[in-house]
Design a protein that fits this description.
Layout: H1 2-14, H2 19-47, H3 53-68, H4 70-73, H5 82-93, H6 104-122, H7 127-137, H8 151-170
Helix pairs in contact: 1-2, 2-3, 6-7
Length: 171
Amino acid sequence: MLRIKKFYDVETQARFLPAAERVALPQEYAKLIVDDLEACFKEQLGKISSKTPLVKAIKYALARLPKARPYLDNGFLELDHNTAENAVRPVAVGRKNYLFMGSEAGGKFAAIAYNLIETAKMNKVNPEAWLAWVLERIQDHLASRIAELLPWAYQYMIDASECDAEAENAA
């Protein structure tokens, strides 16, 4: 369990970093943890009776480790899907209310709106303020620079404005 906790420690450090830095952190630290975990599992297989449930669990984990490795090379992948589950929970609670969206297009629009709002919340950004900020800029914004309109870019701009205001007040 301590080895698995180390994954989450790396993920906590990487969560709000830009994608390029998010890739570097798992590659640097999590790869060592995966390799250590795999070695530990293989070592335990030689020590434990093959008839125990633990051996079955270790074999299950070893068979799935190769599918976990892409996490190490992609700054956009998360270690688990807890964020998605937590984002979907409010939608599930209101499922009966949304049973009839009016049209397929209305359902797609609602899904996009939920996605945008939950992305802002996940990044600790006020969704209403961020969406207003995006809507003011998006018409004249280049599609190739769309990342500048994402919640973390907005938060960076807000933080920079606050720092400028504090520096101005101090002067």
